[in-house]
Design goal:
- The complex is a heterotrimer.
- By secondary structure, chain A is mainly alpha-helical.
- Chain A is built from 14 helices and one strand.
- Chain A has a domain of 229 residues: Ribonucleotide Reductase, subunit A (Orthogonal Bundle).
- The mean pLDDT of chain A is 97.
- Chain B is mainly alpha-helical.
- Helices cover 57% and strands 1% of the residues of chain B.
- Chain B folds into two domains: 61 residues, no CATH class; 271 residues, Orthogonal Bundle (Ribonucleotide Reductase, subunit A).
- Chain C has a single domain, classed as Nonspecific Lipid-transfer Protein, Chain A.
- Chain C contains six helices and seven strands.
- The chains are: A mainly alpha, B mainly alpha, C alpha/beta.
- At the A-C interface, helix 4, helix 9, helix 10 and helix 13 of A face helix 5 and helix 6 of C.
- Bound molecules: fe (ii) ion (FE2) (2 copies).
- The site of one fe (ii) ion has 5 residues of chain B, from helix 6.
């Protein structure tokens, strides 16, 4: 047993005395004076509701009160509360603000709640009954959906792996990562339903996809994991979502892809803002991040070239050229995001441009 | 620590040849013939939509999932074709169904997805200003909200700690605890917002309660953590939410507690059904759970932090006059007895009634000494 | 007399629909973006705040917009006619489809983050344009 209480409290006279005193009506009430930062936060825009940004206006509670290195609190006490002696350490290992912070984090969390959906009902599944896909196209969609279940499950695992290690001072980012966990679990659900609806079946696991996802989740630090997940993985997922919407010929697939793209893009938005603020604070980190992405992108090359992904895409798109053009677009947009996050021009050291040339027949 | 894969693709002849071949239009199309089962799936109820329950069929279903799913360790979803030797091993640590499973977990997940709400807009914050609350009551309420803000996050951190360690075969459970993580983040959010919108702000963190949280997070296994957190701690919190709704100073607060309560009840139900699943399927784990709950109950006893209980007394009595305090103590005493009774009821429903005999809470009931009689054990 | 397209009047009519259909737009969630719609050489500005369209305008500086959806009049016309025929865009005429492979409609942007707002709020932006199904339109 990892954590054992210092006493058997059922036999503790001190605890007994406290219970007897309080329940006997002799209240101490000293805690009533412990409110050093009175505040009456209000919604700045009533239709938007009371947002995290609204309650962060007071400097005693807002994120500007978080030091770059958190040394004062390793407990679950919320930021801005009075911290009495005796608070335990919960063992947090991510205690540096720039390792996690993004100024857009609080509003992205608000956005994710606000733009919630439920695959059971939001997707008009019955529309698939009259979808005019050929047998090959039908199986191609189910194969891609199979891969997207895997990708979504791992996309839920990445925030899960880190959020419990993060200091509570960063609670907005923790909330957001919980939203990412849930968003990803919901995508896994939606694609499982898509793969199995009607006369359904799952496809084949992809060795390359599994390897790529393992690289992403095994990233050594949270910033590396964030770059690999939110920038690399979700850029590709967003592109796939756009492409599925593009090739869709019915309302169910169109709507599913649209929600997929929205959810994926929120992760990207956090990734760009997070890496940008990290690099503003600690520009030297650019080297480690770029080296990591060089290797992660090798995994992405494997995924993009895997038979379980590229072949069904070709079937659905009417040939390789449309797929190659969508791959190029997606990679270019991904590089733009990397540059915008402060990673510079990744074109020269990434394996992706050579891969694109390969499938475009230029290599 | 990082893993960078087994292949450098552009330097790999097979890969480059494959791409050139595809470029020429030669597709393998092996995936068209994945060899997986074909099933027929429709929504049982159009109104409810297409749920995980509708997908519970054949090799894809959870009913057919064995206690020991041998082979899958990678990212392949349940029912997909995969090769044991060819999968990237994600190193899952929870691989037995009874490690994580609960009766009705697919329904709990669907319910969670459909009953999401938003603390920003679903609580009528602008109405708070319309109600006049005595200052000492608002202060006590702020102390209670500080406590809730503090403890809610354990129920995001604990699911998160274990979610990524669960085998992908258990996606319904992973989904459910991911939904719990967002539920609890929203709970921490709503209580923080309430404390900061009421004029008082955050108050005192509570060290005694936090040692319990640490014990939950540090539990040796997921199931021990679940028994402690879902069943015992969240059961207590659920009773406290009901109490808090009852003594809420404003209708705004009542609304807030109604919303958090429905989530909390779902989490407690999962905990009860997970415990029941373990006891039904792997009764040999019973002694281990007893030992974990012995210590969990011990930590819980120490949660009698005077600041928290005094705040609850002030709230229940609606003030600090001697008559109000007397009334507050009566109500809080009833709450404590209720918490224990409900915990015992849940143990009984999970098939763990012999726990009741062994429980340290019997001592607490004696300590409160408000009730001369034995707690009414549910029949 | 129908509403001319393109015209400020057209975008004002769509803006009004986001108020009339407030419940539907609220269900889609927050949407905070200022984007452009370019029909031929004419640029219109659309501002969304919280759930609804709060402002539409003519002209402006594209660099201050998150993104601009740009296409010749004929394509907009084809899209709007499809929206009118189907009570909302059919699968071939959604904004994403038109702006994806082939780029029959262009997405112009300077800031990748602004660009990504198109995808973050895609369901709302599509619903906004789909509101044209109830309008009586006259094309220039
Ligand atoms: Fe909770
Ligand atoms: Fe809970």
């Amino acid at each position: 047993m990892a954590y054992i209480a210092p006493k058997d409290f059922s036999q503790d006279p001190e605890l007994l005395a406290t219970v007897m005193r309080v329940m006997g009506g002799d209240l101490d009430l000293s805690w009533m004076k412990d409110h050093p930062h009175p505040v009456r936060a209000q919604a700045s825009q009533p239709t938007r509701g009371l947002t995290l940004d609204d309650i962060n206006q007071d400097p005693a509670y807002g994120p500007e009160s978080i030091p770059e290195i958190v040394r004062h609190n390793f407990s679950m006490a919320p930021r801005g509360a009075v911290l009495p002696d005796g608070l335990p350490s919960l063992g947090y290992r991510v205690n540096r603000k720039s390792d996690v912070w993004a100024d857009h984090g609080p509003s992205l969390f608000e956005e994710s709640k606000s733009r919630r959906w439920a695959p059971a009902r939001t997707i008009p599944w019955k529309e698939l009954d009259s979808a005019d896909y050929s047998r090959e196209e039908d199986l191609a969609i189910r194969q891609i959906a199979t891969s997207l279940i895997s990708a979504s499950l791992v996309a839920a695992d990445v925030p899960s792996r880190w959020v419990w290690l993060m200091n509570q001072e960063f609670h907005e980012i923790k909330y957001l990562l919980c939203a990412h966990m849930f968003d990803a679990a919901r995508l896994a659900e939606a694609f499982r339903k898509r793969a199995l609806y009607g006369h359904g079946s799952l496809g084949r696991d992809s060795r390359e996809l599994g390897d790529f996802l393992k690289m992403v989740i095994d990233s050594e630090t949270f910033p590396l994991a964030s770059a690999a997940t939110n920038l690399t993985l979700f850029s590709i997922l967003q592109g796939l979502g756009r492409h599925l919407e593009f090739v869709s010929r019915n309302a169910a697939d169109t709507r599913l892809a649209t929600y997929f793209v929205q959810d994926a893009t929120r992760s990207i938005a956090y990734g760009v803002d997070h890496i940008r603020s990290l690099l503003t604070k600690r520009p030297n980190e650019v080297v480690a991040l770029n080296e990591h992405l060089d290797l992660i992108e090798n995994g992405l090359v494997g995924l993009l070239g895997s038979r379980e992904l590229i072949e069904p895409l070709i079937v659905l798109s009417g040939g390789l050229d449309a797929v190659a053009s969508f791959y190029r677009r997606t990679v270019e947009e991904y590089f733009e995001r990397c540059a915008s996050a402060g990673l510079g021009d990744r074109t020269d050291h990434s394996p992706l441009p050579d891969f694109l040339k390969l499938i475009e027949g230029q290599r | 620590m990082s893993y960078y894969g087994s292949t450098e693709y552009l330097a790999n002849d097979d890969f480059v040849l494959r791409m050139k071949d595809i470029r020429k239009g030669n597709l393998d199309l092996g995936w068209l013939d994945a060899g997986t089962e074909q099933i027929e799936v429709n929504a049982a109820s159009e109104k409810r939509g297409l749920t995980y329950l509708d997908l519970n069929k054949g090799s894809y279903g959870y009913d057919e999932l064995p206690e020991i799913p041998r082979g899958p360790r990678g990212s392949a979803p349940r029912g997909a074709a995969y090769e044991v030797a060819n999968q990237a091993d994600l190193g899952p640590e929870l691989n037995l169904k009874s490690d994580v499973w609960a009766y009705k977990v697919a329904s709990f997940y669907e319910e969670a997805v459909s009953r999401q709400w938003d603390a920003t807009t679903d609580v009528p914050w602008q109405d708070l200003a319309r109600y006049e609350t005595p200052e000492e009551v608002e202060i006590a309420f702020a102390q209670l909200c500080t406590f809730f803000t503090e403890v809610e996050m354990i129920a995001t951190d604990l699911p998160a700690k274990w979610c990524w360690r669960m085998n992908n075969q258990f996606h319904e459970v992973k989904g459910f605890i991911a939904s719990q993580a967002i539920d609890e983040a929203r709970h921490a959010e709503v209580f923080r917002k309430r404390a900061l919108a009421g004029g008082v702000g955050l108050m005192r963190a509570l060290p005694q309660a936090e040692h319990s949280l640490k014990a939950i997070l540090d539990s040796d296994t997921y199931s021990e953590a679940s028994a402690f957190m879902h069943l015992l701690a969240e059961g207590n919190i659920l009773t406290m939410f009901r109490f808090s709704e009852f003594i809420s100073p404003t209708p705004v607060d009542k609304r807030m507690f109604q919303l958090v309560m429905q989530d909390e009840a779902r989490h407690v139900s999962y905990g009860m059904q997970h415990l029941k699943w373990i006891l039904d399927n792997t009764p040999e784990r019973k002694e281990q759970l007893h030992a974990a709950l012995d210590e969990a109950e011990n930590f819980s006893l120490n949660q009698f932090d005077s600041a928290l209980f005094e705040a609850m007394i002030v709230l229940a009595g609606k003030g600090t006059s001697p008559a109000q305090i007397k009334k507050g103590i009566e109500i809080v005493g009833t709450l404590q007895i209720k918490q224990i009774e409900e915990y015992f009821q849940r143990l009984r429903r999970a098939g763990f009634e012999d726990r009741i005999e062994r429980s340290k809470f019997r001592d607490l009931l004696a300590m409160i000494s408000l009730s001369n009689q034995e707690p009414t054990l549910p029949s | 007399m129908g509403i001319p397209f393109p015209s400020l009047e057209f975008f004002k009519a769509l803006q009004q629909r986001t108020k009339d259909e407030a419940a539907a737009f609220e269900k889609l969630g927050y949407c905070d973006t200022t984007f452009g719609i370019r029909v031929g050489s004419e640029l219109y500005r659309v501002v969304f705040e919280i759930y609804e369209c709060v402002e539409v305008g003519e002209g402006g500086d594209p660099s201050e917009l998150d993104f601009v959806l740009s296409a010749p009049l004929d394509l907009w016309r084809e899209m709007l006619e499809a929206i009118q025929a189907n009570g909302g865009a059919d699968a071939a005429h959604t904004i994403n489809t038109l702006t994806h492979v082939g780029d029959v409609m262009k997405v112009e942007y300077e800031d990748p983050e602004g660009h990504d707002r198109l995808y973050r709020f895609m369901a709302t932006i599509q619903a906004f344009l789909d509101e044209a199904s109830g309008l009586d339109l006259e094309f220039a």
